[in-house]
Amino acid sequence: VLFSWFFLGMEKVVVCPYKKPDALCRLICFSWAAGGTSEFTAWGKLFSSSIEVSSIRLPGRESRANEPFVKDMADIVNEVTSALLKILQEKPFAFFGHSFGSYVSFAVALHLKEKYGLEPIHLFTSGAHAPVSKALLPIKCVNMYDIKDEDIVNYMGLLGATPSKHLQTEENRKHMLLLFREDFRVLQTFSFEKPEGNTPFSCDVTCFNGSEDKPYDLEAWHDLTSGDISLYKLPGHHFYLLEPANEIFLMKHITRCIENAGL
């Protein structure tokens, strides 16, 4: 009974529709603010048999729509770590996070390293600042509940997302806006200060961005890992990764990085 409870708990948080028992590596994907797992579902099918893809489902969305939102980043880290721990001890893993998901993936990776000595073989970040960047400071000052719904809808449109399908009914629109506000609020609770003389990671880090997106402060990644840092700009805006040609590039590049990690 305990095992089935644990398994259901894990399945609720860690979504893996295309299981590959013989995969060399697990790729865990973390979505953007208000995002779910559906965007990464196809990746599990498209990657080669050497990589099994899972994505993280946070409370308040999809099958967890009726669950209360988390209070802060620490809550997310604790839940995700508990759900992932067993499978991450079994074989090598890498993380991919886009925008809000980049900060969540970093926070989870940091916790895994500090508490369990587990480290991804590669961190892939997308559309985000380095987690210790001063560019994140202005985010802390914004009161999301002072911002009008229309302004958030316009902002999401400016980012190049395709929110229209999620905003067709009033109910969907309300839920999407609430999700966005809540995820943004969680991001405001995230903070990390690098201890003097301590480099948290030794893995390689690859940062992807859209060429039309705003510039991101990525320099600070050099202080966060002793591994190599690579930067790639792909054509498009903040949601460049939803373009089929870019998706193919991402998959090929991620596969190459993982297969070259000497597993």
TrEMBL record:
Chemical reaction(s) catalysed: (9Z)-octadecenoyl-[ACP] + H2O = (9Z)-octadecenoate + holo-[ACP] + H(+)
EC number: 3.1.2.14
Residue span, Thioesterase domain: 26-247
Pfam families in the cross-refs: Thioesterase
GO molecular function per UniProt: fatty acyl-[ACP] hydrolase activity
Signal sequence coordinates: none
Gene3D superfamilies the record matches: alpha/beta hydrolase
Biological process, per Gene Ontology: medium-chain fatty acid biosynthetic process
Family, as annotated: Belongs to the thioesterase family.
PANTHER family to which the protein is assigned, alphabetical: S-ACYL FATTY ACID SYNTHASE THIOESTERASE, MEDIUM CHAIN (PTHR11487:SF0), THIOESTERASE (PTHR11487)
Name of the protein described by the UniProt record: S-acyl fatty acid synthase thioesterase, medium chain
Species classification: Eukaryota, Metazoa, Chordata, Craniata, Vertebrata
Gene designation: Sast
